[in-house]
Amino acid sequence: MTSPDAKSPLHAMSVDVEDYFHVAALSSVIRPEQWNSLPSRVEQNTERLLELFAEHDVRATFFVLGWVAERFPDLITKLSAQGHEIASHGYSHQLVYNQTPETFRKETYRSKHLLEDITGKAVQGYRAASYSITRESLWALDILSEAGFTWDSSIFPIRHDRYGIPDSPSAPYSIETHNGNIIREFPLSTAHVAGMSIPAAGGGYFRQFPYPVFRYLFRNASGFGQRPQMFYLHPWEIDPDQPRYKNASWFSRFRHYTNLDRCYGRLERLLQDFRFGTVSESYNAYEPDKTLLRSNQMIRMA
Fold first, then answer.
1. Rounded (to 5) percent helix, strand, coil in the chain
2. What is the tens place of the pLDDT at every residue in 50-79?
3. Is residue 96 part of a domain?
4. What is the spatial distance between Cα 11 and Cα 189, in angstroms, rounded to a whole number?
5. Alpha-carbon distance 39 to 37, whole Å?
6. Among 1, 126, 205, 294, which is 20 to 30 Å from 267 by CA?
7. How far apart, in whole angstroms, are the C-alpha atoms of residue 13 and residue 85?
8. Bridge partners of residue 230, in order along the sequence
9. What one-character DSSP code corresponds to residue 302?
10. Which domain holds residue 223?
11. Is residue 3 assigned to a domain?
């Protein structure tokens, strides 16, 4: 087994801990009221990721859905006990811009308190379902800061049908919210090729691009080894045996099921090609570089 160069950047390895039936791509055929009756596979899939990370001595950040934590508290305890960072993925995996601020606030506090009660540790990081903090839902950052979150990883600097703020910074930066609080943002990785921003953060992009193409894009996003980047994955993405919903649209099936059988092997290769740690460890790697700190941008929300 090869190992990445110890001098290469420490990228952020993040896992959104949710089940296959939680995803937005299948929301048109699976209703939340059905979730409790469906066979869960999140525990076994997360366990496989834990074993792989242990083999490669990688500590990751697990963005845990409150719905999952409530039903599998022992899994969350195990994640924390093995030295991984626990962050929040909200409670019900609903798109933020489809929620009212009141509902979002209630679910955000519920999930945060649940995770803190299970682990006995403060939860400081957050990631919205399907990266749904957009220009229409920047109000969510006020609620996150009020709840005690100090950093977020929900903003994708691309154009997409469900998410993204295309002209937002591609490197970590700070955001001043309406209430005057500061929250740090670690955006999802994008490569810049021929004047275009191309997603290079993981998930479906990791499965759909051939691995050499994704590896090039991830290296491109890092300035070819100059700065840390954000990678993400879901436990269901290494599970080709999950139930298949043929009544979903062809595009949803493409997004969700493409190359599930290849994802685990690609992840093994990725861990050999790049260095990974938690989101907090990777974010802090920016701090010694004064140039990068000066280049950080502040979004002032009017």
1. 45, 15, 40
2. 999 999 999 999 999 999 999 999 999 999
3. yes
4. 10
5. 7
6. 126
7. 10
8. 12
9. -
10. 10-300
11. no
Residue 73's Cβ-count burial label (10 Å; 0-12, 13-18, 19+) is middle
Provide DSSP, 61-91.
EEEE-HHHHHH-HHHHHHHHHTTPEEEE--S
Transcribe 177-199 into DSSP letters: -TTS-EEEE-PPPEEEETTEEEE
How many Å apart are CA 49 and CA 55, to the nearest integer? 10
Kindly report, residue by residue over 164-194, the tens digit of the pLDDT.
Answer: 898 888 889 888 888 888 899 999 999 999 8
Count of structural domains, the chain: 1
Find the CATH number of the domain harbouring 271.
3.20.20.370
Closest CA to 151 of 111, 124, 189: 124
Phi then psi for residue 287, to 5 deg, are: -60, -40
Length of the chain: 302
Ranges of beta strands (E only) in the chain are 10-17, 61-64, 85-88, 125-126, 151-152, 173-176, 182-185, 190-193, 196-199, 230-233, 275-277, 298-300
Q: What is the dihedral of CA 94, 97, 102, 106, to 10 degrees?
A: 30
Report which residue type is found at 113. H
Strands 173-176 and 182-185: antiparallel
Does residue 50 sit in helix, strand or coil?
helix
Q: How far apart are CA 194 and CA 181, in angstroms?
A: 37
pTM over 0.70: yes
Determine the Cα–Cα distance for residues 158 and 168; give it in Å rounded to an integer.
8
